[in-house]
Amino acid sequence: MNTSANKSYKSAFIFLTSLFFLWGFITVLVDSLIPRIRELFTLSFFQAGLVQFAFFGAYFLLSIPAGFILSKIGYKKGIVLGLATMAVGCLLFYPAASYREFGIFMVAYFVLAGGMTILQVAANPYVAALGSEEGASSRLNLSQAFNSLGTAIAPAIGAMLILSDKVKSTEEIAALSPSAKETYLASEASAVQSPFLGIASFIVVLAVIFMFVQLPKILGSNAPKGGFVEALKHPSLKMGAIGIFVYVGAEVAIGSYLVNYFMDMNMAEAIKNSSAMSSISEFIIGTNLAEVSSLAIVGAFVTFYWSGAMIGRFIGAYLTKVLNPAFVLRIFALLAMVMVIVSMLTEGFVSMWAILSVGLFNSIMFPTIFTLAIDGLDELKPQASGILCTMIVGGAVIPPVYGLLTDEFGFKIAFVLVIICYAYINTFGKLKSLNRI
């Protein structure tokens, strides 16, 4: 490969990796809104889980159409289209917050996720193709590590900008005078509007930059007829698709309800009564705990869940080079199960840190399942990517189910659903390591 091609690939890799960071950041920032809108709209945990249904449902409905669109307009225009769609989604949060309409929030989430779907379908196989086949897994893990960097930063930003002030109950709002109520609703709208207006502005700038970026043409346009059907004939892809479904569902279910889980265990008071824990919370939020809500106090610790995924991805990138990736996947899935069980059977800080540590073991699951699932598919990889990205819909299905189980049985019993998800991933890794699929 000549020097010019190397330079072109390197530049493209850097720009594409910025997209991984962007959608990781936005995906987790959505989690910060869930406890807030649950109080604003007096929702059950199941109804709050529908936020993720609208967000991740876009992946199920739009991944395969996104692959078709990309084959027609190319990756560069597709990326710009995806970014423009994301910007529109962010801007829709403005009227949603102004009018306090839950339906508009759902539309905003769906449009935002629609843009991210286009980027996901394109970026994962494209990054893998930017260079030698031997380094494909390493490149994808590195890009995914920056995705994790975005997810690690987002909870702290969410705690500072979205969860920092106290949300009044329906009864408290009704008791306010008309002028006080108007002032309160305006401040609530601003707390949601400002972050997403800023994100929309950043996305527009990024879209303009990509209009002038030269991306190398790598993937062929002559896809085999019936490619999606042919791809699904491979057992490894079918099992891997289910693996993506349960992995995303488990990760999002835990992340979405961490704040509520910690509140249910009265962790805000425990944190305030512990000098070490209160210092950590104050450091992340950047202010004295007396000045923020209990949601912000516990929400700050969600940073460790997502930052663990980032650290684990760097570690996993090395481990998958020196060990069988399927074996590493099995070990990480087993350890995730163990930590969930520990959190179920304990209380207080042990339970809190156990569930936060699951983020570390989630780290390599998406890129490892993805690469194991498309291994050996050659010209069918673009179709396989669309199928795998479609199964990100697990983030829309499993969190509401987890929320429903929580409404009925409590958080700890509901974790059985998450354990089943990791057990499946362990089975997939075992069959791949034994070359049975």
Helix content percent band:
over 70%
Oligomer: single chain
Radius of gyration from the alpha-carbon trace, in angstroms: 21 Å
* Structure annotation, total helices: 19
Overall geometry comes to globular
User: Beta fraction of the residues?
Assistant: under 5%
Query: Could you list the spans in which at least 5 consecutive residues all have pLDDT below 50?
Result: none
Largest sheet, described in full?
none
Q: How many extended strands? A: 0
Mean pLDDT: 82
What is the string of SSEs from the N terminus onward?
Answer: HHHHHHHHHHHHHHHHHHH
Distance between the termini: 34 Å
Class derived from helix and strand content:
mainly alpha
Q: How does this model look, in words?
A:
The protein is mostly helical and 437 residues long. Helices cover 82% and strands 0% of the residues. The chain contains 19 helices and no strands. Helix 1 packs across helix 2, helix 3 runs antiparallel to helix 4 and helix 4 packs antiparallel against helix 17. The longest helix is centred in the first third of the chain and has 47 residues. The chain is globular and about 65 Å long. The model has no long low-confidence stretch (mean pLDDT 82).
In short:
The protein is mostly helical and 437 residues long. Helix content is 82%, strand content 0%.
List the helices and strands and how they pair.
Layout: H1 3-40, H2 45-91, H3 93-99, H4 102-129, H5 136-161, H6 170-174, H7 178-212, H8 227-231, H9 235-264, H10 267-272, H11 275-285, H12 294-299, H13 302-322, H14 325-345, H15 348-362, H16 365-374, H17 381-390, H18 394-409, H19 411-433
Helix pairs in contact: 1-2, 1-4, 1-5, 1-9, 2-4, 2-7, 2-17, 2-18, 3-4, 3-7, 4-5, 4-17, 5-13, 9-15, 9-16, 9-17, 9-18, 9-19, 13-15, 14-15, 14-16, 14-19, 18-19
